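Usage

Read records sequentially. Each one opens with the input sequence:
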Amino acid sequence: MHTAAQVTNHFSSDDRPTPEASAARKRLLDAFAQYDALAKRIRVLPTSGPGSSQDRVLAAVHTRANIFLQKHMFPLQVSTNSDTLVESY
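and closes with the structure output:
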């Protein structure tokens, strides 16, 4: 599996991303979407009540999932901006 940095490095400002880089980006975005959906499903699981220890654990899992997505999706957003710059020339 390629890292986001490797995917980003498959093209320069002079050319478009390779088909492999585009496919890798799509797979990553699909995986991140599944991860986000799962985190949301975990958050809405029934608990014994608001503020209970189980509720706090579910909230913590959801929060950590959001932090993970923000951290690891940033390189993909940067490479998407690079694509836009390339297309504008």
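Summary fields computed downstream for this record:
- Residues 53-88 form the longest helix (36 residues).
- Residues 85-89 have pLDDT under 50 and may be disordered.
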